[in-house]
Predict the structure.
Amino acid sequence: MTTKQTKGPRRPPNIKKLADSFDRNDTQNMEWEETDLKFERPEMVHVSLRIPKEDMIVIQKAAPTAGLGHTTYMRMLIRQALTSK
């Protein structure tokens, strides 16, 4: 048997509809299922990277609008570029 592996986070087909449902309903009234799901952080490595100063300025301005620090924002951009192929 072969399984298809996806890269990056999976999203439901209609995320806006799902978000609206959670906004309108009290989750305490929902039925829950016990599970043994375990989350693990990926192992990180330290990388030194030289980029143009102008690019860093843009990153530092854009990161807060995404609610992120600049290094997390850069990781997100790299991950998006890698998973979009």
Summary: The CA atoms of residues 64 and 70 lie 8 Å apart. The mean pLDDT is 87. The first helix runs from residue 15 to 24. Residues 46-85 form a domain with the Arc Repressor Mutant fold (CATH 1.10.1220).
